[in-house]
UniProtKB/TrEMBL annotation:
Residues 210-360 form the Galactose-1-phosphate uridyl transferase C-terminal domain. One of its GO terms (cellular component) is cytoplasm. Its EC number is 2.7.7.12. PANTHER family: GALACTOSE-1-PHOSPHATE URIDYLYLTRANSFERASE. Zn(2+) binds at C72, C75, H136, H187. One of its GO terms (molecular function) is UDP-glucose:hexose-1-phosphate uridylyltransferase activity. Its cofactor is Zn(2+). Belongs to the galactose-1-phosphate uridylyltransferase type 1 family. This is Galactose-1-phosphate uridylyltransferase. Residues 40-198 form the Galactose-1-phosphate uridyl transferase N-terminal domain.
Amino acid sequence: MTEPLRWTLADGREQLYFSLPGHTPDPVPDRRPLPARGKQMSQLRFDRQTGQWVVIAALRQDRTYLPAADQCPLCPGPSGETSEIPAPDYDVVVFENRFPSLSGDSAFSLPNTGGAEFVAAPGHGRCEVICFSSDHTGAFAQLPLPHARLVVSAWRHRTADLLSRSAIQQVFCFENRGEEIGVTLNHPHGQIYGYPYLTPRTEQMLRAAREHRARNGTNLFADLLARELAAGVRIVARTELFTAFVPFAARWPVEVHIYPNRFAHNLTELGDDELDGFAEIYRDILQRFDRMYPTPLPYISALHQYRDRDDQREGYFHVELMSVRRSATKLKYLAGSESAMDAFISDVTPESVAARLAEL
């Protein structure tokens, strides 16, 4: 993949065009009268009850909410007056979010949280939108394989860039698909967050991995993969390079994890053949999701990536896919036990879900 074409939107945000071989992006000037962006638009607040950072981003109340298809801001805008993507067409585009949770990722470090007072800090970080295709009615699962591979290349490019920035501690690529999940734009797209801290789930998993290393002398994630392979009953798909399985203690009605068959911290450590293989199995699992029920499965896709440094060294790159749909007509809501206590209760067995997805 060649370097993306860089463009600038009317309010100064950066935009990058990733293109398939033989395709040349042709953006036009962004002519929208956008207001100038403030230097800092959100705040981090430290929750002493949990020891976790919370992002306060009130500006997101004004973000675009389920517009009509002919007013979609992610469709091509050849006039430069209507869209976030001022171009007659595109393959894959990444740009800074107009309504970011985190922004301003210059040199920054979190304040000391010792003491008893309230602690707050500017909401430094980076939030990007990645548009998978110019087709408003499409989906990642429907992308031709070379196009899906281009999205993976864009994820890898953004991971490498954001990890090179000292203020960013974690890079999180993800997709929310379906109004049941809470998407506010139906156009096929995902997001990329650069956090100035390690997210709570990442810290929790790394802590478990360090404890596992101390007890057993081995990597927790590699051992989990080996044990799932040995058990065999929750494997959904396996290739020479990747394995997809429903985890033993799945929390969600539909949950699949995709692991490379060898250890890597993040996408930048995978070779070209592995990136090809990842695009293939990832698309395959999403296609299985869409064959489960009469309507496409709403899902969250979460790419877990880590830095190669002491506090994250045990982190094993993998993808976690999850859905709130527990039957063709019912959704799982995160009510009292899950939302208040983070104590998940599953309505289905992981083995039955794995068998169904393997059949599909």
